[in-house]
Amino acid sequence: MRSSERTQGATLIVSLLLVMLLLAVIMSVTAQVTLSARRSSSDQESVLRAQLAAESGTALIQARARHEHPAAQRAVQSRRHPRRAERPGCHLRPDQHARRGGRQ
Q1: For a tag on the chain, would you pick the N or C end, based on fewer CB atoms within 10 A?
Q2: Which residues of 68-104 are buried (b: 16+ CB within 10 A; e: fewer)?
Q3: For the chain, what are the domain ranges?
Q4: In terms of DSSP H, where are the helices of the chain?
Q5: Are 66 and 73 contacting, i.e. CB atoms less than 8 angstroms apart?
């Protein structure tokens, strides 16, 4: 064998090894990105479930409080709209009563 044939053979082997190394690095990076994305989506799902459970519990407690304690509900309304609390069940503002000819 001539030395040029040996050089070509060695170059081919080195080139193949470099290509294999490059492919291994690309596959490793791809695997890491995939695992990271899976973890992230799993974390987001857990956060969403926790948030929905908290909101559901809050809504349930508010509904029970409204049903079981109507006086407390009127007190909350009186803080928001002091004039409406004087006339329970009235949905009009005081200035609307005056325009409609109603009592004040």
Answers
A1: N
A2: eeeeeeeeeeeeeeeebeeeeebeeebeeeeeeeeee
A3: 56-104
A4: 3-68, 70-80, 82-86, 94-100
A5: yes
